[in-house]
Design goal:
Layout lengths: L3 E4 L2 E4 L1 H22 L8 H21 L1
Antiparallel strand pairs: 1-2
Helix pairs in contact: 1-2
């Protein structure tokens, strides 16, 4: 995979679209977990949400750069 992606004449690191994809997946997963009532069992929901985002971003980054 290339290290940079060209968009409108600008070069972006490959991790920028990965971060956007991770944010979208995290948003969908957050909605699913809220409907299932998981946040009633979580101590700090904001910390859980940001940890989920970082976990998804890390996994996608590892999958791309591996």
């Amino acid at each position: 995979m290339p290290r940079e992606i060209e968009f409108l004449g600008m070069l972006f690191p490959t991790l920028v679209p990965i971060a956007l994809i991770a944010a979208a997946l995290s948003w969908l997963l957050d909605g699913l977990l809220a409907r299932l009532g998981v946040y009633a069992w979580v101590w700090h929901s904001a910390l859980f949400r940001i940890s989920t985002l970082l976990l998804l971003f890390s996994l996608l980054g590892l999958a791309v750069y591996r």
